[in-house]
C-alpha cells in the first residue's frame, strides 16, 4: 500500500501522537485502527436502526414469544408491570 500525507494542524498531530503512544502504537497503526473502528460504528448504527425498525412492527414480539414460549419473558402492560 502506498503512503500518502494528511495535513492536520500541529495540535491535532500531537494529540494523535499522544494517544498512539499511550496505546503503544505508531500514529500510522493508531489511525488505521481508528478508521476500522469508525467504519464498524457506522455499520453498527445502520444495523441498529434496521433492528429497531423491525422489532417495532406490531405483533412481532408476541409472535416471537409464541414461537419460543419457554424463553419468553413475563408479559408486561403499558406501565411495565407484569400483565
Description:
This protein is mainly alpha-helical and 83 residues long. It has 3 helices and no strands. The protein has helices spanning 10-22, 27-55, 60-67. α1 (10-22) packs across α2 (27-55). The longest helix has 29 residues, at 27-55. The N and C termini lie far apart (60 Å).
Write the layout of secondary structure elements.
Blueprint: H1 10-22, H2 27-55, H3 60-67
> What do the pLDDT scores average to?
90
Q: What is the C-alpha radius of gyration, as a whole number of Å?
A: 23 Å
Structural class: mainly alpha
Distance between the termini: 60 Å
- What's the total helix number? 3
Biggest pleated sheet: none
Low-confidence stretches: none
> Percent of residues in beta strands?
under 5%
DSSP strand tally: 0
Helix content: 55-70%
Q: Specify the overall morphology.
A: elongated
Order of helices and strands: HHH
Please summarize what this structure is.
The chain is mostly helical and 83 residues long. Helices cover 60% and strands 0% of the residues.
Keywords:
single chain; 83 residues; mainly alpha; 3 helices; 0% strand
Amino acid at each position: 500500500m502506498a503512503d500518502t500525507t494528511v495535513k492536520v494542524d500541529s495540535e491535532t498531530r500531537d494529540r494523535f501522537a499522544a494517544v498512539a503512544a499511550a496505546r503503544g502504537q505508531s500514529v500510522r497503526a493508531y489511525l488505521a485502527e481508528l478508521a476500522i473502528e469508525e467504519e464498524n460504528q457506522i455499520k453498527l448504527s445502520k444495523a441498529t436502526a434496521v433492528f429497531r425498525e423491525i422489532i417495532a412492527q406490531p405483533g412481532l414480539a408476541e409472535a416471537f414469544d409464541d414461537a419460543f414460549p419457554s424463553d419468553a419473558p413475563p408479559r408486561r402492560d403499558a406501565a411495565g408491570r407484569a400483565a
